[in-house]
Amino acid sequence: MNIILVDDDEMVLQTIGDFLTRRGHRVRTAADGSEALRLMTEEMPDLVISDIQMPGMDGISFLKAVREQFPDLPVILMTGYATVETAVAALRSRAYDYLKKPVRLEELQACVERVERKDHSEI
């Protein structure tokens, strides 16, 4: 899968990016929502994985911008500050899934596999 990973934490980009790359995915990284939106115009991803707490455009605003341009693109949101309010906002904005940081890599892989199965079932 072609994945865009969005987080302002370089260590998260490296750890999750390496994990997904080792599993055969093509991963491009962005430090914020604006950069991720630019990457999407260059090449459409199959999946976006984004942090919620970022400088500038936060993850919920980013998700809303993605929904305006790419209504069916799966977006998984991650946060180190999980609250009921952010979970509700994410789901109302049609996040594919919502993961709490530190992200368990097995849980992330299960989410990615669900997206892959959904993509294949629509073909």
TrEMBL record:
This is Response regulatory domain-containing protein. InterPro entries: Bact_response_regulator (IPR050595), CheY-like_superfamily (IPR011006), Sig_transdc_resp-reg_receiver (IPR001789). The keyword Phosphoprotein applies. Pfam families: Response_reg. SUPFAM superfamilies: CheY-like (SSF52172). Keywords: Phosphoprotein, Transcription, Transcription regulation. It comes from the Bacteria. The keyword DNA repair does not apply. The modification 4-aspartylphosphate is found at D51. Signal peptide: none annotated. The lineage of its organism: Bacteria, Candidatus Handelsmaniibacteriota. Residues 2-116 form the Response regulatory domain. GO terms for biological process: phosphorelay signal transduction system.
